[in-house]
Write a structure and sequence with these properties.
The relative contact order is 0.11. By secondary structure, the chain is an alpha/beta fold. It has a 7-stranded mixed beta sheet, sandwiched between helices. The chain contains 13 helices and 7 strands.
Length: 353
């Protein structure tokens, strides 16, 4: 067993740490991951997501680590469902911080403390890996992976409101249990969109997300993800989440200057595009030159609307969550506990009288 930068005894006084490892056709690589998890982890949950290779059974037969517990799905439900199963088990067993690591060996388990400490120190509610922080690491990545992550990152920023993050599909994450209890786990995507949808859900409660620089270890393993099959679902999900986020943030929960800019921006641009299109079609049909005034009447609203949307985007970027939420939730729980104790004491005093 590999020791991390912090021993189990030095961190247990701060938090009980659980590790969740979704397992699907990861074979012997999961055993290598388990052997490298530092002692600072108190609990380890390997979730066999209906693996046809019987990864869960192999883990049970090969590992002697008392921290390891194998959870099994009868049928394959997706990486999101497997992770949520591990989350629920960690919550039930009293964990305070839950780390998710993939079982394919691309993530270094000895980096565990780097993901946990920002939560323990109250600097973040959720941490995630970023494989693009170091230029040396970027040069080693396949070009297709770089382009795909750049596109996904932009859409994720737009749909979640976390403009300060990169590499949104990174599966090396850590979350405070106080935040987990707040999230609607049943409504989070069960498949490969899990990490992106998780960020969307975190954005709805304005949790603080922090990127942790990391180096991925690429080997000969084959990914179960097929890009051609997820492009359209990912795009549709991001568009849907973007619309919901804008409505939640700028119209349902609050009404800010960006609310006016977004509304007027789309109205102005919509008017300009529709009016200009109709004018162009009329001119083309009648073989006439469009008057300059008509052109300006179409172009000016488009320009004004575009400027308003840019201003709203600038506001949205500056509105990225920066107040750690789990400390506030913990404070509320303490206050409720104190109030409950005082109420029970008052009742006892009354009864004794």
């Amino acid at each position: 067993m590999t020791k991390g930068a912090f021993s189990n005894s030095s961190t247990s006084k701060f938090a009980r740490i659980a590790v969740v490892i979704p397992c699907y056709r990861t074979g012997e690589r999961t055993l290598e991951v388990l052997s490298a998890i530092p002692e600072m982890a108190d609990m380890i949950y390997c979730v066999d997501d209906g693996c046809p290779d019987g990864t869960g059974a192999k883990i049970e037969a090969a590992t002697r680590d008392p921290r390891v517990r194998v959870l099994k799905h009868k049928q394959n439900q997706g990486v999101g469902a497997a992770t949520i199963t591990g989350y629920r088990a960690a919550i039930a067993d009293g964990a305070e911080v839950v780390v998710k690591i993939d079982g394919d060996g691309q993530m270094d388990p000895t980096d565990l403390h780097r993901f946990v400490m920002p939560l323990v120190e109250g600097r973040a509610d959720y941490t995630k890996g970023n494989r693009f922080f170091r230029l040396e690491d970027v040069r080693e990545m396949p070009a297709l992976r770089l382009i795909g992550n750049a596109v996904l990152t932009f859409f994720t920023k737009l749909s979640t409101g976390y403009w300060n993050i990169f590499d949104p599909t990174n599966g090396y994450t850590a979350i405070h249990v106080g935040i987990l209890r707040t999230l609607p786990l049943d409504r989070i995507s069960q498949g490969y969109f899990f990490e992106s949808d998780m960020l969307f859900r975190l954005g709805t409660i304005r949790a603080v997300v922090l990127d942790v620089p990391m180096t991925a270890r690429y080997g000969n393993e084959k990914s179960n993800l097929r890009i051609s099959k997820v492009v359209r679902p990912f795009l549709c999900s991001h568009i849907g989440n973007t619309i919901k986020r804008i409505f939640y943030s700028y119209y349902l929960r609050d009404f800010q200057v960006a609310s006016v800019e977004i509304l007027l921006g789309f109205l102005f641009m919509g008017f300009g595009i529709i009016f200009g299109g109709l004018a162009w079609a009329n001119s083309a049909t009648n073989d006439q030159i469009t008057p300059a005034g008509t052109v300006m009447l179409a172009a000016l609203p488009i320009i004004i609307g575009f400027q308003m949307l840019l201003a709203a985007l600038n506001y949205d970027i500056g509105n990225t969550p920066d107040k750690v939420l789990h400390k506030e939730l913990l404070g509320r729980l303490i206050d409720q506990s104190i109030t409950s104790c005082e109420t029970q004491t008052d009742k006892s005093d009354t009864a004794s009288l």
